[in-house]
Write a structure and sequence with these properties.
3 helices, disordered N terminus, five-stranded antiparallel sheet, 5 strands, about 140 residues, alpha+beta, elongated
Length: about 140
């Protein structure tokens, strides 16, 4: 322990004062690992973090809902297959799905209770599963 301390003194640099994560001001007092200059900055920072997280979740839900509506409307037309590019032109976002697995012949995606297969750039066999055990 003492050896490490002396090494730091020899090779280390003078630690700079910590900076507030919210406002960027130098933190002039408190513990060395303090992250905020005051409670107001701390609250503002954490509120923004929570808001960002909430907005991200809302964006994901909106994408999943849109994908669901598109897939369900196609399912009702009994369309056998559709090119991914055509789906995307309708607003479908391929990176948003609720589960995925690979079968022997297909990549199988789920958007809630809708199942669809992707082979290359083609989406096929959009169907509704009856219960979770069907997955
Ligand atoms: Zn601050």
């Amino acid at each position: 322990m003492r050896k490490e301390f002396s090494k730091k003194l020899v090779s280390g640099t003078v630690p700079s004062a910590p900076v507030c994560l919210e406002c960027g001001d130098t933190i002039k007092y408190g513990r060395a690992d303090r992250k905020f200059c005051c409670d107001a900055c701390k609250n503002k920072y954490h509120n923004r973090q929570a808001q960002d997280s909430r907005q991200f979740r809302q964006m994901v839900h909106a994408c999943l809902d849109r994908n669901y509506i598109i897939l369900d409307s196609l399912r009702k037309t009994n369309l056998k297959n559709i090119r991914m590019a055509d789906l995307e032109s309708m607003g479908f976002k391929r990176d948003f799905f609720t589960s995925y697995y690979r079968s022997l012949r297909h990549e199988v995606y789920m958007c809630y209770d809708l199942r669809y297969f992707v082979s290359g750039e083609t989406v096929t066999s959009i169907s509704r599963i009856r219960n979770v055990d069907d997955v």
